[in-house]
Amino acid sequence: MKHNFLDDAWLKDQLAEEHLNDDDFSASTMQIIDIQCQHPPWYLYLLSGAIVCSLGYLVINLLLSIFTDVPFEKQAMVDAQWSNLFNGIQFEPICIFAVVLAFALIWSVEEFDLL
Amino acid sequence: MESNLVTRVQYSGDHHAFEQLMRQNQSPVRQFLRRLTQNDHAIADELAQETFLKAFLQIKTYRGEGKFLSWLFKIAYQLFVSHTRKKQPLTNVELEDVADPSNFDNQFDAQRTVKSLLKYLKSDERATLLLHFKHELSHQEIAVVMGIPLGTVKSLIRRSRLKLKTLTEQSELGEAHEA
Questions:
Q1: The complex's ipTM?
Q2: Sign of the C-alpha dihedral computed for residues B159, B118, B172 and B101 taken in this order
Q3: What is the tens place of the pLDDT at every residue in A93-111?
Q4: Which burial class, exposed, middle or buried, applies to B76 when counting CB atoms under 10 A from its CB (0-12, 13-18, 19+)?
Q5: Which helix (H) or strand (E) holds B84?
Q6: Do A8 and B133 touch (CB under 8 A)?
Q7: What is d(CA A95, CA A86) in angstroms, rounded to the nearest whole number?
Q8: With b meaning 16 or more CB within 10 Å and e meaning fewer, what string describes B46-62?
Q9: What is the four-CA torsion angle of B99, B101, B103, B104, rounded to 10 degrees?
Q10: How big is the CA angle at A30 (ends A27 and A36), to the nearest 5 degrees?
């Protein structure tokens, strides 16, 4: 093989290759892109967040109350919570945790394509 | 016009426009990755798909500075480097001692072209050679693609040419002895 590595034109000629046919490459890549671009509708995020937040606010507080020594009335507890909800939301740390949990749930749904 | 297609993808996420861009640029990107991966077509095409996927998702980061193909090469090279770092060290023929011409064993491929000698270069040497002589990128463009200084690009090209020259001379010397 005659070679002249100092000659740019010769080296360029040596490295030249034929054009690669697209075959199925672009079509299959576009399919992958289409799948990646699919997002759940926005109201699903809103609904999931609202459900988890409200359940968290009601249920977690209720469970904490159940497992304390203080006697209570369940119905009064729920009523009190609804009343508090509309009188001005007071976020206790456990409720903030419920909110964080809600966002984690929404993130998981999107990240791991659960729906 | 490529710039029109890019604009359509950036502003409206036009899938059809991106598919046209992909068809125009898939050959050089895939060829580049095939040479980098030493003709492993499966891995090269997988990396090429990841390249175009990443390009679509990050299309807004392309600001028109330089050719669109250069931007694709940059993504492709970064993906190749990440892929190489995850590979088992023993399966990587770009180890220092293998790439060293003094360990070359005169066992050439039957074809014995410059392309067959590329596997004896390190990946960064191979990349600079291919980007400059095959894909006609300037030294400055290669520096941007590979994220290395301009001086390093020139040094790598010079070194890879010298290495190829040394390899062929050693081969011819070996042939002469055998004869």
A1: 0.76
A2: positive
A3: 666 776 777 777 777 777 6
A4: buried
A5: helix B68-86
A6: yes
A7: 15
A8: ebbbbbbbebbeebeeb
A9: 100
A10: 150
Nearest to B53 among A5, A11, A32 (CB): A32
Q: Which residues of B touch A9 (CB under 8 A)?
A: none
The model scores a pTM over 0.90? no
User: What is residue A72's predicted lDDT score, i.e. its pLDDT?
Assistant: 53
Token output for B67: 């050719």
pLDDT of residue B96: 42
Report yes or no: A39 at the B interface, CB cutoff 8 Å: no
**Contact between B22 and A30 (Cβ < 8 Å):** yes
Tokens of B174: 């070996």
Residue B21's nearest CA partner among B56, B50, B45 is B56
Interatomic CA distance for residues B125 and B122, integer angstroms: 5
One-letter identity of residue A106 = I
Instruction: Kindly state the tokens that stand for B144.
Output: 């941007």
Return the structure tokens found at B47.
Answer: 């990396």
Regions of chain A with pLDDT less than 50: 1, 91
pLDDT digits (tens, 9 = 90+) for B77-128: 999 999 998 875 544 444 443 444 444 444 444 345 778 888 889 999 999 9
Instruction: Find the helix packing angle between B15-36 and B68-86, rounded to 10°.
Output: 50
Flag whether residue B58 sits within 8 Å of chain A, measured between CB atoms. no
What residues have CB less than 8 Å from B122, skipping those under 6 apart?
B94, B99
Residue B161 has pLDDT above 70, yes or no: yes
> Which residue from A minimizes the CA distance to B118?
A15
Alpha carbons within 13 angstroms on the beta-carbon side of residue B15 total 13
